[in-house]
Design goal:
heterodimer, A: about 350 residues, mainly alpha, MetI-like fold, 2 domains, 14 helices, about 70% helix, B: about 550 residues, alpha/beta, Dipeptide-binding Protein, domain 1, Dipeptide-binding Protein, domain 3, four-stranded antiparallel sheet
Chain lengths: ~350, ~550
C-alpha cells in the first residue's frame, strides 16, 4: 500500500530535465513513425505506377512482373512498411530513380540550396516585417498602417509565379541588377569546393569573393520574393499581437507611470509578444524550408521543393518518401526549438 | 526548317513526360499568362555574351537518370552520350541525309549469308583516358549492353544476342569485330540500330577498374564517362546541369567549344529571358508564345525541329462497330486536322498521317485525310452504324492531348457519334489500353531507334492477336488488330538487304496501313529552339539522332 501511495521503496524519480528529454524524444519518435506510415501508405495508394517508372511502358508482362516482385510490391502492405522502416532506421531511403543516387545524398545536395534561400528570405521577412507590424499597430489607422495593410494584402494575394517572373523580367531582364536563374552564373559552376552545400558560405570559406558576389546576386531576388511573402504574414501577425497588448491595462499603467513611449512599446509590449511571434516566424520559416516549388522552378533553383515535386510526378517514390520525411523532421525540430525558446523567453513555460 | 527526331523512347511514357504532363501544362498556363502581358510589349536587347569558347544551353534535362550508354534511354541523356562516346557507325551531323557513316569502325563487310557483319576498327583513336580504342573494347561494350539487359537492350537483343551466346555472336579478332545475328536482317536495320545510344563504345579498362559486385561498371558509368568522343563528362548534377569539356585528342579534331554547359531550366519564359540577356546561347524548350515574342529580337534565330513523336487515335477492334472497315476509315475523316494545327497546336505539331515520321527511311509525306463529315456520314451509313453511337476515349492528363480529345469530341458529334472523354493518369489509362479495354485511345508514340522497323514493328506487326499472347508492347495488339497481312510485309521488309527496295516496301506497307488500319495518325511533333545568331553549325540531330556539339563555332 505504501508503494501505491508513492511512498516507501519507490524508485527515485528521474531528474526533471531527463523526464522532459525522454518525453520529447518519445513524442518525436511517435510523430516520425506516424509520418513515415502515412507517407508510405499515401505513396502506395497514389494512382501512379512505380513499376512502369522502372521498366517503361513497352516492357513485357514478364519484365513488369519481375520488377513488381523485385520491388517487394507483391508483399502485404505492412510487411513492405516493415522493410521500409528498417531501411530508414539504417539511414537508407533507397536510390532515386531519377538521379541514380541514394536519396539521402540527393537530399544532402538539394536541402542546403533551399536552406540558404529560406533562411535569407526569413531574415528579410523578420527584418522588415516585425518593425512594420509594430509601427502599424502603434500608429493604428495612420498612413503607415494603411501602407502595411496594402503591402500585406499584395503579399497574400499576388501569385508567387507572377511576382517571380515580373521580378526576373524587371531586375534581371531589363535592369540587369541581379543574376538570372540558377544559384550561380554558368561560368562559375563548380568553381568552389562543396563544403556545406550553401554557395555563399562555401565561396566565403574558399575566399572566392567573385563567386560570392555572383551567388549573392542570384540569391537576392528569389530570397526577397520569399521574404516578401514571409514579411506579409509576419507583419500582419505582429500588428495583431501588438494591438492586443497595447490595449492591456499594464500598458496604460506604464504610460501613467510616465514611461517613454519607446520603452512602453519595446520593453513591455513587444517583450510580451515574443513567444507568439516566435511561433509565427517558425511556421513561416518551416513553410519556406519545405521548398517553394514555383519559386524554385521559375528561378531554376535546385531545392527540395522541386526535388520532391519532380519525383512525385515521375513516380520516384523513394525520393518522395525521403523528401517528405525530411520535411516532417524539419517541422518537428523547429517545434522543439520553439519550445526551448519559449522556456528561455517566458518563465511560465519552464 | 531544321528537322530533328532523336528516335527513342515513347514520349508518352518518358519520365520527363510523365511529370511534364502535369507540370508543363500547369506552369505553362501560369507563365504564359504572366509573361504575355509583360514580354509581349517588351523587347529586350542582348546584354552580354557567353565566352567564345563555351557553349551554354538551357534545356529540360530532368529526364536524365543515367549516363551509361547501355542504360540511357531518355532524350537529354542521349544528347550527352552522343558527344561523349564514339560508335562503330554514326551519323555525320553535317550530312544527316547520308545515313550511317564509319565512326570507330573504318569499314565493314557483310557475310554471304547476310548474318555476319565484320567491322574493321579505325587505327589511332584513343579514349579520354589515353587507352587506345580497340576491337576488344567494341566487343566488350556490345556484350556488356546485352548482359546488363537494361531498358534499351532490346535494340540489340532483337538480333538474337543473349547473355548466353554473346561469346560466340560478338567476337573481336585482332583489329576486327564480327557480330552474327540469329537470322538474316537488312544490313541497314542492324547498322541503324548500332547508331543508337546503346551502340556507344566504352573504355573497357577504365570501366572494369570501376566495377563493383560484377556490375560491369554500371553504377560508376551512370555518373561518369569512359568514351572516345569529342567531349568528356565533367559533371552531371541531376536536375541542375551537365558540364562537358572538350577532348583535344578527338580523332576528327579538337572541338572549337572547349566547354559545353547544359543547365536545367524548366520554364520557357525563363529560357527566353536568359537568351535575350545573352546568358545562354541556345534555348531548347521555347513554347509558341515565347517563340513569337522572340522572333524579331536582334541576334536571335529560331530553328524549327521536326521530332519523331506522333500523335494518334486508335480504335479497339474488339468493339463491334469500330472494327468495321468503313468505320475505321470514316473516323479518319472526322478529325479536324487543320483546325487543330492552326489553333492550339500552333507551331508544335504538323499534320502527318502515317506511322513513319518524316525523314525516316521509307517515310511518306502523303496526308490524304481532311475533315469531311459528309463523307464520313456516308461511310458510317454504309456500315450500318446506328445513329447516336456512344464510345469512350481514354486520354492522359496532358493539356495538348485533352484539347485534341475535345476537338475530336466536337468533330465526331458532327457525324452523330458521342464520344465520352476519360482523362486519367498514365497508370490508369495505360493499364486499360494495355488490357485492350478502351474503345478509343488518344496518345503519342515516338521511335526507339533510327530505323523504320521501330515503328513498323509496333503499328503494323502483330503475329498473334489472341488475348493470351499478351503482346502489350505492340500497339497493333493493344488495339486487337490482326494487321490484315501487314505483319508478314513488315517481317519481309526488315530482312531486305537492298536499302532502296526496303524503302519501297515501307511505302507499300504504309499505303495499306492508311487504308485499313484502326490507327488515325494525326500529327508529328515540332520543337522550336531559340539560338544566338552567333552560334553556327549547331545540329540538333535531324530526324534520326541527338545533338552534336563538336562542329559548333561562334
Amino acid at each position: 500500500m505504501a508503494e501505491k501511495n508513492g511512498k516507501g521503496r519507490a524508485a527515485p524519480a528521474l531528474p526533471r530535465w531527463a523526464n522532459t528529454t525522454l518525453s520529447t524524444l518519445g513524442s518525436v519518435a511517435v510523430t516520425m513513425l506516424g509520418l513515415l506510415f502515412v507517407t508510405f501508405i499515401i505513396g502506395r495508394v497514389m494512382p501512379i505506377d512505380p513499376v512502369l517508372a522502372v521498366v517503361g511502358e513497352r516492357a513485357s508482362q514478364e519484365t513488369y512482373d519481375a520488377a513488381f516482385e523485385a520491388m517487394g510490391l507483391d508483399k502485404p502492405l505492412l510487411v513492405q512498411f516493415g522493410y521500409y522502416l528498417w531501411d530508414v532506421l539504417h539511414g537508407d531511403f533507397g536510390n532515386s530513380l531519377l538521379t541514380a543516387h541514394p536519396v539521402s545524398e540527393d537530399i544532402k545536395r538539394v536541402f542546403p540550396a533551399t536552406f540558404e534561400l529560406a533562411t535569407l528570405g526569413t531574415i528579410f521577412g523578420i527584418f522588415f516585417g516585425v518593425p512594420l507590424g509594430v509601427m502599424a499597430a502603434v500608429r493604428r489607422g495612420s498612413w503607415i498602417d494603411q501602407v502595411a495593410r496594402v503591402v500585406a494584402l499584395v503579399g497574400y494575394s499576388m501569385p508567387i509565379f507572377w511576382l517571380g517572373l515580373m521580378g526576373l523580367l524587371v531586375f534581371y531582364g531589363i535592369l540587369g541588377w541581379v543574376g538570372g536563374p540558377g544559384r550561380v552564373s554558368i561560368f562559375y559552376e563548380d568553381m568552389v569546393p562543396v563544403v556545406t552545400g550553401m554557395i555563399l558560405i562555401d565561396s566565403a570559406l574558399d575566399g572566392n569573393w567573385t563567386v560570392f558576389k555572383d551567388a549573392f546576386s542570384h540569391l537576392i531576388l528569389p530570397a526577397s520574393l520569399l521574404g516578401y511573402y514571409s514579411l506579409a504574414y509576419i507583419s500582419r501577425m505582429t500588428r495583431s499581437f501588438m494591438l492586443e497588448q497595447l490595449s492591456a491595462e499594464y500598458i496604460i499603467t506604464a504610460r501613467v507611470k510616465g514611461m517613454s513611449e519607446r520603452a512602453v512599446i519595446w520593453r513591455h509590449c513587444f517583450r510580451n509578444i515574443r513567444v507568439q511571434l516566435i511561433t509565427v516566424i517558425a511556421l513561416s520559416y518551416a513553410n519556406l524550408l519545405e521548398g517553394s516549388v514555383l519559386t524554385e522552378i521559375i528561378f531554376s533553383w535546385p531545392g527540395i521543393g522541386s526535388y520532391i515535386t519532380t519525383a512525385l510526378l515521375s513516380a520516384d517514390m523513394n525520393a518522395v518518401l525521403g523528401g517528405t520525411v525530411v520535411v516532417g523532421l524539419i517541422f518537428i525540430l523547429l517545434n522543439i526549438f520553439c519550445d526551448l525558446l519559449y522556456k528561455v523567453l517566458d518563465p511560465r513555460a519552464r | 526548317m531544321v528537322f530533328m527526331n532523336p528516335g527513342r523512347k515513347d514520349p508518352t511514357t518518358t519520365k520527363s513526360d510523365r511529370r511534364g504532363n502535369t507540370m508543363k501544362s500547369f506552369s505553362r498556363i501560369l507563365t504564359t499568362a504572366a509573361l504575355s502581358v509583360a514580354l509581349g510589349t517588351t523587347a529586350l536587347t542582348a546584354f552580354a555574351e557567353t565566352p567564345p569558347n563555351m557553349l551554354v544551353i538551357a534545356n529540360r534535362i530532368d529526364d536524365i537518370t543515367t549516363l551509361d550508354p547501355a542504360e540511357s534511354f531518355e532524350f537529354a541523356g542521349s544528347d550527352v552520350i552522343r558527344n561523349v562516346y564514339g560508335k562503330l557507325v554514326n551519323f555525320d551531323p553535317m550530312d544527316l541525309d547520308a545515313g550511317y557513316q564509319p565512326d570507330l569502325a573504318e569499314s565493314w563487310e557483310v557475310s554471304e549469308d547476310g548474318k555476319s557483319i565484320t567491322f574493321t576498327m579505325r587505327e589511332g583513336v584513343t579514349f579520354h583516358s589515353g587507352n587506345p580504342v580497340t576491337a576488344a573494347d567494341a566487343e566488350y561494350s556490345l556484350r556488356r549492353a546485352v548482359i546488363l539487359n537494361k531498358t534499351p537492350a532490346f535494340i540489340l537483343t532483337q538480333f538474337g544476342f543473349t547473355p548466353e551466346n554473346v561469346a560466340e555472336t560478338i567476337v573481336a579478332d585482332g583489329n576486327t569485330l564480327t557480330i552474327t545475328t540469329d537470322k538474316k536482317y537488312a544490313t541497314s536495320f542492324v547498322l541503324n540500330c548500332l547508331t543508337s545510344t546503346i551502340g556507344g563504345i566504352v573504355d573497357m579498362k577504365t570501366v572494369m577498374e570501376n566495377e563493383v559486385d560484377g556490375d560491369m561498371g554500371n553504377e560508376w558509368l551512370k555518373t561518369n564517362s569512359a568514351g572516345s568522343g569529342a567531349y568528356k563528362l565533367q559533371s552531371w548534377k541531376a536536375n541542375e546541369a551537365v558540364t562537358l569539356v572538350s577532348n583535344p585528342d578527338f580523332y576528327l579534331g579538337a572541338p572549337a567549344m572547349e566547354r559545353v554547359v547544359v543547365r536545367h531550366v524548366q520554364e520557357s519564359a525563363t529560357q527566353r529571358l536568359m537568351l535575350e540577356r545573352g546568358d545562354i546561347d541556345v534555348a531548347r524548350n521555347l513554347n509558341p508564345e515565347d517563340v513569337k515574342g522572340i522572333m524579331d529580337v536582334e541576334g536571335v534565330a529560331i530553328d524549327n525541329e521536326l521530332r519523331g513523336r506522333l500523335m494518334y487515335v486508335s480504335l479497339n477492334q474488339k468493339h463491334p462497330e469500330l472494327s468495321k472497315p468503313e468505320v475505321r476509315q470514316a473516323f479518319k475523316y472526322l478529325i479536324d486536322y487543320k483546325g487543330m494545327e492552326g489553333s492550339f497546336l500552333n507551331g508544335q505539331y504538323t499534320i502527318h498521317q502515317n506511322f513513319l515520321p518524316r525523314t525516316y527511311l521509307g517515310a511518306v509525306d502523303n496526308n490524304p485525310f481532311t475533315f469531311d463529315p459528309e463523307k464520313a456520314k456516308e461511310m458510317l451509313a454504309a456500315a450500318g452504324v446506328p445513329e447516336g453511337l456512344e464510345i469512350e476515349v481514354g486520354v492522359r492528363e496532358a493539356q495538348e492531348r485533352i484539347e485534341i480529345a475535345q476537338s475530336l469530341q466536337n468533330s465526331l458529334a458532327a457525324a452523330g457519334i458521342k464520344m465520352n472523354i476519360t482523362v486519367g493518369t498514365a497508370k490508369q489509362i495505360l493499364a486499360r489500353y494495355r488490357a485492350r479495354e478502351l474503345d478509343v485511345y488518344l496518345g503519342a508514340w515516338g521511335p526507339d531507334y533510327p530505323d523504320p522497323h521501330t515503328n513498323a514493328g509496333t503499328f503494323a506487326y502483330n503475329p498473334d492477336n489472341s488475348d493470351e499472347a499478351g503482346a502489350t508492347g505492340l500497339l497493333a495488339w493493344r488495339n486487337a488488330w490482326d494487321t490484315d497481312g501487314l505483319t508478314e510485309m513488315t517481317a519481309a521488309a526488315v530482312v531486305e538487304g537492298d536499302r532502296d527496295k526496303r524503302a519501297e516496301m515501307y511505302h507499300e506497307i504504309q499505303a495499306k496501313f492508311q487504308e485499313t488500319s484502326p490507327f488515325a495518325i494525326m500529327f508529328q511533333k515540332i520543337e522550336q529552339t531559340g539560338r544566338a545568331e552567333s552560334v553556327a553549325n549547331l545540329n540538333l540531330g535531324g530526324a534520326i539522332t541527338a545533338v552534336s556539339y563538336w562542329p559548333v563555332t561562334k
